[in-house]
Amino acid sequence: MKALIILSLALFFTVPEIAVAECNESACVDVYTKDNQIIIEAHKGSGGRTTARAPKPQPSPTTTLWFPPKPSPAPKPYVKRTYKPRTAKPTTVSHSVNLSDRLTKLVPTAGIAFQPEFEALCNVPVIFWIDVPALFQSRVNIIGEIVDVALRPGFIWSFGDGSMWATTNTGAPYPNESITHTYSKPGTYSVVVVTTWNGAFTHNGAVRAISGEIVKTSVATVTVVSAPTRFTK
């Protein structure tokens, strides 16, 4: 059973093949996940231009001739001069430009919904869905660079009775239900949904995969009762 779930996850969460963006030294952008958050980092560089300095020429040794020193001239008479006081120029303070920045984005946490909300019946399908968007998009402006982030969720449902289901469908309420489960015995069941977000970001027209993934867990309790029995003659 676990092997089938892992195989299903590999099929559902596979990111399509995308073009890898070259990191231009004039502006490098990276998007990854850490502590279940999206981290967007960017910094500007020198533009990849370097200036080579020519080596200074070394003086070559020359032959010198010695001559007797000339007599020093007589000192000039001292003349007193007056100076006007100089006005100090105002000091200009320049602020350095921030060439790097870091932003944090949060993806929504899923909430589990189901019908009927109270006392579902044995052997009658219960309708489930989860209230998250099928696509999470965010556009950020970081150090003058526009970055578009796009994530899609995948879900693993555990219905509390040993049954599990992997899907990329968010489900829907009646009459458009697409995720249902039928309980055969009465009881209180803990329904757990593990949501995994994967995706890519776009910068300067190039698309790159987001390193890592974001995993969120949602829990709900479903009470199932026996259907009333009616005897007829």
Class by helix and strand content?
mainly beta
Estimated helix fraction:
under 10%
| Helical segment count | 1
Portion of residues in beta strands equals: 35-45%
CATH superfamily: Immunoglobulins
How many beta-strand runs? 13
Radius of gyration: 37 Å
> Strand count, sense and closure of the main sheet?
7 strands, mixed
- Please report the first level of CATH classification, the CATH class: Mainly Beta
Mean of pLDDT: 77
Write up what this structure looks like:
This protein is mainly beta and 233 residues long. It has one domain: Sandwich (Immunoglobulin-like), CATH 2.60.40. Helix content is 5%, strand content 39%. It has one helix at residues 2-12; strands at residues 28-34, 37-43, 100-105, 112-115, 120-121, 126-130, 136-142, 145-158, 164-167, 179-181, 187-203, 206-209, 214-225. Strand 11 (187-203) and strand 12 form a beta hairpin. It is rod-shaped, with a radius of gyration of 37 Å.
Give the gist of this structure:
The protein has one helix at residues 2-12, and strands at 28-34, 37-43, 100-105, 112-115, 120-121, 126-130, 136-142, 145-158, 164-167, 179-181, 187-203, 206-209, 214-225. With 233 residues, it is mainly beta.
